[in-house]
C-alpha cells in the first residue's frame, strides 16, 4: 500500500471507531427510562433514580464533547502530517535514535496530557462535584498529577527504553524478548503494586482488631483462602465511590478495603463482597486472565514486528524516511479494530466470570447480603440500571445489576 493510501486507511479507522462508539452511546442514552421501572422499586428510591438519570445524561454529554474534540484533533494532526513534523524537528536535537524516540513519546505524552487537564478538572470539580461524588481538593489533584508524571518518567521511561533497545538490537525478532520483558514487568507490578505504588497516592492502614476482622478471617479460614493481611485505604480522600480488591500472589494475599465501603456496608455485606473476590481466585479467573493477556500481548507484538520497519507507515504520518516511533503511533491507530474485538471477547469472559464469582459467594457464604451490598453500591454510584444490550455487549466487564440479582436468586435457600 502506498503511504497516501495508508494515511486514508488510518484516518478511516479513527473515524469508524469514533462513529461506532457514538452509536453505542446514543443507543444507551435512548434506553434510559425517565420513570422508575417496576423491578427497581426496592433498589432505587424514586428521587435517587431521577438523579441517576441526570448523572447518566451529564456523563454522556461530557464524553460526547471530549471524544468529538480528541477525534477532530487526531484527524487534523494526521491530515497535516504533524507527527512527521515533530519527528523532523526533534531529529535536529537528538543524534541517538533511541533518545530521539524517547523524546518523541515524551513530547506526545506531555502535550496530550496538558490538553487533557481542563477536561479532567471539569469532570472532577464540576460533574462529579455536582452529584456529590468528588471529595478531592485542587491540592490533591495537582499532587497526583506530579506523582503521575514522576511514575511515567521512571517506569514508562525505563520500560520504553528497554523495549526500544530490543527493537533496535533484535530487529524483527524483538517481539519475543519484548513479550518476556512486558510479562515480567506486569507480574512484578501485580505483586508489588499495593506495596510500592498505592502508598504514593493513598494511606493504607491495617484493619483494626474487632468483629469485622474476625468475621473476614473466619470466612477466609473456612474456605482455605491464604489471607495475609487486611488493609483499609483512604479512598474518601478523592471520591465517595467505594471499592475493594485483592492483591499479591501465591500464599500471601492482601485485601484492600476502601474506607467508603466499610462506612456504608454491614459486616455481613462486606464479607459477602470479599467472598465474591475470593471466588475469582478459587475459580482461577486471575490466573486465566493473566494467561489471556500474555497471549493477547504476543499477538499484538507479533503483528507489530511485521509493520515496525515498514517505511511507508512513517511516510503516511508525514516523515521522509523510516522512523520506529512514528511506526509505533501508526500501528497503535491501525490496530484499533483488532483491539476492539479482543476487548469485546475479554469483556464476555469477564461477565461470565462475574456470574461464577457471585455463585461462589452465594454457595460458600450467602446470596442475600451480596445482593443488598450490590444494590447499595449501584445506588451510591448512581449506576445506570437500564443500559442498552449492545452497549453492555461491547463495554461492560460486569453484567448489569438486575441480571446478577436474578442469577443469585437461584441460590437462595427456601424459607
Ligand atoms: Zn468480580
UniProtKB/TrEMBL annotation:
User: What are the CAAX prenyl protease 1 N-terminal domain coordinates in residue numbering?
Assistant: 29-203
- Provide a GO biological process annotation: CAAX-box protein processing
Provide the transmembrane region boundaries. 6-27, 62-83, 103-127, 148-168, 174-198, 286-308, 328-346
Indicate yes or no for the key word Hydrolase: yes
Cofactor: bound how, per the entry note? Answer: Binds 1 zinc ion per subunit.
Where does this one sit in the cell?
Endoplasmic reticulum membrane
Q: How does it sit in the membrane?
A: Multi-pass membrane protein
Keyword annotations: Endoplasmic reticulum, Hydrolase, Membrane, Metal-binding, Metalloprotease, Protease, Transmembrane, Transmembrane helix, Zinc
An annotated Gene Ontology molecular function: metalloendopeptidase activity
The UniProt record lists the Peptidase M48 domain at: 207-410
Task: Give the active-site positions.
Answer: 277, 358 (proton donor)
Identify the Gene3D superfamilies for this entry: Metalloproteases ('zincins'), catalytic domain
In which family does this protein belong, per the annotation?
Answer: Belongs to the peptidase M48 family.
Q: What's the protein here called?
A: Peptidase M48
Q: Which organism is it from?
A: Roseivirga seohaensis
Classification from the root reads: Bacteria, Pseudomonadati, Bacteroidota, Cytophagia, Cytophagales
